Amino acid sequence: MSGLKAGFAALALVGSMSGAAMAETAASPACEAREAVFYFATGEATLDAFGEASLERFAEDAKACPIAKIEIVGHADSVGPAAANEELSLARAEATSDALANAGFEPVRVELEAAGEADADRPMARRAVVRLVMASADADLG
Asked: With left for phi above 0 and alpha for psi between -120 and 50, is residue 27 left, alpha or beta?
């Protein structure tokens, strides 16, 4: 199965895999703004074991960086009523935020947003996007 998961990174941009959570992360360990995308199964707001592990690696890489804030945007596809998808997208953002906290990541500020079906026509619409915004060297975080 590990070959399947390793190959999924390349397929994530062109296909869909029900029930899988996958992270696309920047490879550079340097402290710079970065983004990760975690995928969810239809109707789900829970990361699977692979998604949890990917998020833990992402959090571990970022812990040493001076992060000003974390933006997490949950998304949904267009399956089901729009109101339910709005709630689901927020639940995905919250689940991702909770998983970051469980990974021991202590962000200065977390902003959650529900995008609902905004990008429902995009491949792999069922996702949460995490953006790390780094503090500038001369910013006062106290």
From this structure: alpha
